[in-house]
Structure formats: C-alpha cells, structure tokens
Amino acid sequence: MQWFKDHGIEVLEWPAHSPDLNPIEHLWAHAKRKLGEEKKPPGGMLELWDRIEKVWDGIEPKVCQDLIETMPRQVAAVLKAKGGHTKY
Predict the structure, then answer these.
(1) Is the dihedral of CA 66, 27, 14, 80 positive or negative?
(2) Has residue 33 been placed in a domain?
(3) 3-state secondary structure (DSSP) of residue 13
(4) How many domains in the chain?
(5) pLDDT digit string, tens, across residues 18-71
(6) CB within 8 A of 30, min separation 6: which ones?
(7) Domain of 23?
C-alpha cells in the first residue's frame, strides 16, 4: 500500500462480492469462447494444453485494452449494486 501512496495511485477498496472487477476472469471467458470455436474436441490433455497455449498466445492486445476500458463502467456498476452481482 505504501508503494501506491508513494506513487500517487489511489487504490479502491475491493468489494467482498465483486468477481466482476477481476479482469482475468473476463480474459479467461474470452479464451474459453475461442476454445469453444474448435470443431473437434481435443484428443487428450496434451492437445488441450496446446490449444489453450495457442489461444492464450493469440489474444490480441486490443482485447486487453478493451477490458481495461470497461473498468470504469464495471466499478460504477459494482458500486451501484453495493458489491453485489452486475451484468459484468
């Protein structure tokens, strides 16, 4: 916390019930959708791992940027829901 203070970064309290504010969950959902586009199920664990790596490595920077840009709306929605569930 001291590092944030020293660098002038305001840290929000993390609401207890807000997985909506965890961007990695949205990134995993994106990866899961991409994996679901495969026509044929993987032939085994190694093939699944290879597919996951390919999808993860293929995530465009724009996907991450778009997630970052949604954060103000997500924070507002979580605050409005008092830490409860939101559409995110």
Answers:
(1) positive
(2) yes
(3) coil
(4) 1
(5) 666 778 888 999 999 999 999 999 999 999 999 999 999 999 999 999 998 988
(6) 59, 63
(7) 16-80
